[in-house]
């Protein structure tokens, strides 16, 4: 395995299908640019005259658009910023916390990361989009699915407060799972 000698930046991006690691190599003498997503080379440019600019590439199952911006700060110093879907990583993650719910749990010794996309009601578990069955119940809706022979249900109930909106709760085998903060 080639040693990453020009590694200048590493980011972790939490998407519905999992947390992805983005690594960026920038050879400031050769202009080399290498982008790794989860350890795999996504972009490799071995020789470039222009040391500043941007590299755009897909991340994850949903092929989310990511862009690394390379800016000269002073002399031979560079700044690297990551944008996801056209927003700074910080803004993207803040927005994401409003549009998704994430739960982390252990079932039978296995770690699971379950994500609900509130706009589509899609449920993801460890990178796989789950088959779900939704039903209306007296106080809201329930989205049913199973993980490894465990029955799971995401209950959506109105908080009764406009600012809070709908409260989503994950119940696995009749046990409420607390929401994770990513």
UniProtKB/TrEMBL annotation:
Coiled coil segments of this chain: none
- Principal location: cytoplasm
Q: Offer one example of a GO biological process linked to this entry.
A: negative regulation of extrinsic apoptotic signaling pathway via death domain receptors
Question: InterPro entries per the record?
Answer: FAIM1, FAIM1_dom_sf
Q: Where in the cell is it found?
A: Cytoplasm
Q: Which Pfam families match?
A: FAIM1 (PF06905)
- Supply the alphabetized keyword list: Apoptosis, Cytoplasm
What domain of life does the UniProt record list for this protein's source? Eukaryota
Entry's PANTHER family? FAS APOPTOTIC INHIBITORY MOLECULE 1 (PTHR13088:SF3), FAS APOPTOTIC INHIBITORY MOLECULE FAIM (PTHR13088)
Q: Function, please? A: Plays a role as an inducible effector molecule that mediates Fas resistance produced by surface Ig engagement in B cells.
Name of protein: Fas apoptotic inhibitory molecule 1
Per the UniProt record, the source organism is Nyctibius grandis (Great potoo)
Gene symbol? Faim
């Amino acid at each position: 395995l080639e040693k990453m000698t020009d590694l200048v930046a590493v980011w972790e991006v939490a998407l519905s299908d999992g947390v992805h690691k983005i690594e960026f190599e920038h050879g400031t003498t050769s202009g080399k640019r290498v982008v790794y997503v989860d350890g795999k080379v996504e972009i490799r440019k071995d020789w470039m005259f222009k040391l500043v600019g941007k590299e755009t590439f897909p991340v994850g199952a949903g092929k989310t658009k990511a862009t690394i911006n390379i800016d000269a700060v002073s002399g031979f110093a560079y700044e690297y910023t990551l944008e996801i879907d056209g927003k700074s990583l910080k803004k993207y993650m803040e927005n994401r916390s409003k549009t998704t719910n994430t739960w982390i749990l252990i079932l039978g010794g296995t770690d699971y990361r379950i994500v609900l996309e509130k706009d589509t009601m899609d449920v993801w578990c460890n990178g796989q989009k789950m088959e779900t069955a939704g039903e209306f119940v007296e106080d809201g809706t329930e989205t049913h699915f199973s993980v490894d022979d465990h029955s799971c249900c995401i209950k959506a109930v109105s908080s009764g407060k406009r600012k809070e909106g709908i409260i989503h709760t994950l119940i696995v085998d009749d046990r409420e799972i607390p929401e994770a903060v990513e």
